[in-house]
Write a structure and sequence with these properties.
The protein is an all-alpha fold. The protein has helices at 2-14, 18-43, 45-70, 74-99, 104-125, 129-155, 162-173. Helix 3 packs antiparallel against helix 4 (74-99) and helix 5 packs antiparallel against helix 6 (129-155).
Length: 174
C-alpha cells in the first residue's frame, strides 16, 4: 500500500495535482503509523519508531525529488537523491543491527527500492510510461524481500534456502 501511495504522490507532484498530493500525504502518514505499530512488538518501541521515522523521511525526500524534477531544479534533485541514499543506508544499518549481520542484503534491497522509486519519477516525467510502469512493478517486487528481511530481523528465523527464495520469487510472479 505504501509503495502505491508513494508512486501516486510523486506522479501527482509531477502533474501538479495539489489536492491529490494532500490526500496521499495524509494516507501515507496513516500507513507509516500502522507500520510502526506493527513493528513495535517485534522490534521494540525505539527501533520501530526509528525505522518508521526513516521510512517517513524517505517518502518526504522522494516527494522533494519529484518537485525538483517538476521544477527542473537539478540542485534539488541532487540533494534529494544524496539524502535518499543516506536514508537507505541508515535503514539497512538498523535492520542489520536487528539481525546481527553486516547489512549487505538489507542495504542492497533498500538501495534498489530507493533507486526504483526515484527512477520511476524520472521515467514518468519523460513521459516514458512503459518504463515508469516497469519500475513501478520493480518497486512492488522490492517490498517482498524487504518485508522478509524485516520479519527475519524481528523473529530471528534462519535465512531462507535458495529453493525457498526461488519459490517466493515465483509466487510473486503469479
Amino acid at each position: 500500500h505504501h509503495s502505491t501511495l508513494a508512486i501516486r504522490l510523486t506522479r501527482a507532484t509531477l502533474t501538479d495535482d495539489p489536492a491529490f498530493v494532500d490526500a496521499a500525504e495524509d494516507a501515507l502518514v496513516r500507513v507509516i503509523d500502522d507500520m510502526e505499530a506493527t513493528l513495535t512488538p517485534a522490534f521494540g518501541a525505539d527501533r520501530a519508531a526509528r525505522f518508521s521515522s526513516l521510512w517517513e523521511r524517505q517518502t518526504k525526500l522522494l516527494f522533494q525529488y519529484a518537485a525538483g524534477v517538476r521544477d527542473d531544479d537539478a540542485a534539488a534533485q541532487r540533494r534529494a537523491r544524496a539524502q535518499l541514499e543516506r536514508v537507505a543506508e541508515r535503514q539497512a544499518d538498523l535492520l542489520a543491527g536487528l539481525r546481527g549481520g553486516d547489512g549487505g542484503g538489507p542495504a542492497d534491497a533498500l538501495r534498489a527500492h530507493s533507486e526504483h522509486l526515484r527512477s520511476q519519477v524520472d521515467a514518468f516525467a519523460r513521459e516514458d510510461y512503459q518504463r515508469a510502469y516497469e519500475l513501478q512493478r520493480a518497486v512492488f517486487a522490492d517490498t517482498f524481500p524487504l518485508g522478509t528481511t524485516a520479519a527475519e530481523a524481528a523473529v530471528s528465523v534462519p535465512r531462507p534456502t535458495p529453493s525457498d527464495e526461488l519459490r517466493a520469487a515465483l509466487a510473486m510472479l503469479l
